[in-house]
Amino acid sequence: MYNVVIIGAGVIGNFIARELSKYKLNIAIVEKDSEVSNGTTKANSAIVHGGYDAKPGTKMAKFNSEGNPMFDKVCKELDVPFKKIGSLVLAFNDEDMETLKELYDRGIENKIPNIEIIDKNKVKEMEPNINDDVIGALYSPTAGIVGAYELAIALAENAADNGVELILNNEVKDIEKIDDGYKILTNKQEIKSKYVINCAGVYADKINNMVAKETFKIIPKRGQYYILDKSASYITNHVIFQCPNKFGKGVLVAPTVHGNIIVGPDSQELNDDQRDELQTTSDNIEYVRNTAVKSIEKIPFNKTITNFSGVRAEPDTGDFIIEESQDAKGFINVAGIKSPGLSSAPAIAQYVVELVKERYDGLEKNKDFNPRREMIVFNELSKEKKAELIKKDPRYGRVICRCENITEGEIVDSIRKNAGATTVDGVKRRARPGAGRCQGGFCGPRVMEILARELNKDIEKIVKDGNESNILTGKTKS
Ligand SMILES: Cc1cc2nc3c(=O)[nH]c(=O)nc-3n(C[C@H](O)[C@H](O)[C@H](O)COP(=O)(O)OP(=O)(O)OC[C@H]3O[C@@H](n4cnc5c(N)ncnc54)[C@H](O)[C@@H]3O)c2cc1C
Known about the structure:
Layout: E1 2-7, H1 11-20, E2 27-30, E3 47-48, H2 59-67, H3 71-78, E4 82-83, E5 87-91, H4 94-109, E6 116-119, H5 120-126, E7 136-140, E8 144-146, H6 148-161, E9 165-167, E10 172-178, E11 181-186, E12 190-198, H7 204-211, E13 218-228, E14 239-241, E15 252-255, E16 261-264, E17 268-269, H8 282-292, E18 304-315, E19 321-325, E20 328-335, H9 341-359, H10 383-392, E21 399-401, E22 406-407, H11 408-416, H12 424-431, H13 444-455
Parallel strand pairs: 1-2, 1-12, 2-9, 5-14, 12-20
Antiparallel strand pairs: 3-8, 4-8, 5-7, 6-7, 10-11, 11-12, 13-16, 13-17, 13-18, 15-16, 19-20, 21-22
Helix pairs in contact: 1-6, 1-9, 2-9, 11-13
The protein binds flavin-adenine dinucleotide.
Flavin-adenine dinucleotide (FAD) binds next to helix 1, strand 18 and helix 9.
């Protein structure tokens, strides 16, 4: 019997697990996928929002403003890329200027530091590629960019290092109330726990309805993106937003932590049964392109290296749902975590830990908690350190991904770690082979070979991303 079971290994579930591992608790994360961070957390804008956008008084405003300043420390502890580059919301007409004023006032109410409305000259000085018809902008210097899936993976690794059990490939199918807690029925087993924390992203309403009254619905909303090659990085140094509209924060243009440019997203409501539909579509991707050029006319879309999409878990209540269920004591929903969910994650995790502590008499601290998780990025080491590492392990001397300069040593490390990679995309999200210009065209087969060797699997069983995404279907010359 566990003390706490967390359903869902996205950034929210993993953050809560890591925070809870600071206490003497028997904790498990139950995840339906074969990898952590494979839901909404793997596909979003990865912006740590300044916090001026959410309506004052909402949970979104509270957790965004509290979460943003926590990123420096946690990203340092976990070796996760995070850059506080600041954001600009652009205005092109008087109506937009009114919106900027509203956002500024909200920012002041949300206690966001150092925001200011700047004029056209200042905007052009900061970002010369922004279109000439800009008339002003809201500048938020504390906004940043983060490796979103890297963060969720690092949290899972660190939680596992600190004793959290990771139960992958287990889809929760039902939950039953039992005397001293809950019985969770997955496609593979029964798991008992005193407390259950529902962090199931776009499926959080379904999980809630297994055990409690239906009090909210999740509306899936897809957003699509372009990723441009690093050679396009000159176009902006800040996160560039347009004024928000009824569809949300709108289409942005921003650098990524790895030096690419991200452009998107749109917002498209999907049907209830389309929660996993991650395809990109020509109409929506064209809308993104046509909207983005209103910020920067000369975006070099010919440098696109990939398109992708992510699905938002939009709650019909309009705000995050973070509370113990009224009719299922010990069952805590952390649901409807749409944007700014990533930015809010550190503060949400701390809040949920307080909820658990209130319900748990005599919770003791885990004195052995280790906050550090380290990552070797070979390319970023000094010449001396590189030589030292290659001497110790020659696999660091073999470059597998030539676009991103990733060595076999880094790939092996990403597989062997606690909560390590099991798929080609899992390796890509941890060590980055295949994240560059050729998108795995050259290194993909090598990564498959390494995965097969390290996991002791037949290479035909190595999948791209998830259970049915086979790459090889059989031998041609058997
Ligand atoms: C287009 C887009 C742009 C965004 N941009 C930003 C941004 O710039 N900044 C920001 O702060 N936020 C942003 N967000 C929001 C942010 O991505 C989310 O708030 C965050 O990723 C939510 O994390 P999560 O852990 O709640 O959900 P997820 O990452 O989806 O994790 C939920 C997990 O639960 C698992 N699961 C589901 N059902 C079951 C089951 N039955 N059994 C077991 N496991 C189950 C899933 O497999 C998944 O791994 C954006 C979102 C989208 C879609």
